[in-house]
Design a protein that fits this description.
By secondary structure, the chain is α/β, with parallel strands linked by helices. It contains six helices and seven strands, in the order H-E-E-H-E-H-E-H-E-H-E-E-H. One of its GO terms (molecular function) is 1-acylglycerol-3-phosphate O-acyltransferase activity.
Length: about 220
């Protein structure tokens, strides 16, 4: 077994920081973490309705996670910090080949890539998916694990705008891993479009199931 890369070690440090912060400030309830494959490349597809969704998943996931994060978040001291804990800066306004290469490197090394397939914070219902998730899943040969973060967008009782009430419960539900591609390994536009459709159905079904499970 090869030694973990600097990026992997950084992501593990990030996971430990996340554990302390998330459990210190809120009450995470984690369901289905056992479903995450213990080894090999994996993609977490996370719904995104709140600023803490990424750090929450980083903290409670059973494996270190490298999230693709918009470059606007890498400001001031956050830039070296996020880079140091293995997070990946992406320019969403263009085809960011550096970010794509780094993300594929994570998967090639058997790591976990975290993606918000909706692209940006919204309703968190997986209604608008970007094709990037399908590309990484097919090209990287990685199963997708859907992740639903529920309760992070509760508005009542907030002390700080944009954050859930302190000490409130936030549910993180990991789903069953699934393959996005058709098994051919091809990456044509048709294959990626079909994969995106397949992903959308799986993620939406997982979110509905997670809401039933948690009563959210």
């Amino acid at each position: 077994m090869s030694a973990p890369s600097a990026s992997e070690r950084g992501a593990e440090v990030g996971r430990r920081i996340g554990v302390g912060l998330m459990y210190g400030l809120w009450k995470p309830r984690v369901l289905g973490a056992w479903k995450v494959p213990a080894t090999g490349p994996v993609i977490f597809a996370v719904n995104h309705s709140h600023a803490i969704d990424g750090p929450m998943v980083m903290g409670v996931a059973p494996r270190p996670t490298h999230f693709l994060i918009k470059k606007e978040a890498f400001i001031g001291p956050l830039d070296p910090f996020l880079t140091g804990i293995g997070q990946l800066k992406v320019d969403r306004a263009t085809t960011d080949r550096t970010a794509i290469t780094r993300a594929l490197d994570v998967l090639a090394a058997g790591g976990v890539l975290g993606i918000f397939p909706e692209g940006t914070r919204g309703e968190g219902d997986f209604a608008a998916l970007r094709a990037g998730l399908a590309y990484f899943a097919v090209r990287g040969g990685a199963p997708i694990v859907p992740v639903a973060v529920l309760g992070s967008s509760d508005r009542a009782g907030r002390l700080i705008k944009g954050l859930p009430p302190l000490r409130s419960r936030v549910d993180v539900v990991f789903g069953d891993p699934f393959e996005a591609g058709d098994g051919s390994g091809r990456r044509t536009r048709k294959v990626l479009d079909e994969a995106t459709e397949r992903i959308q159905k799986q993620l939406t079904a997982h979110l509905e199931n997670a809401r039933r499970l948690t009563g959210r």
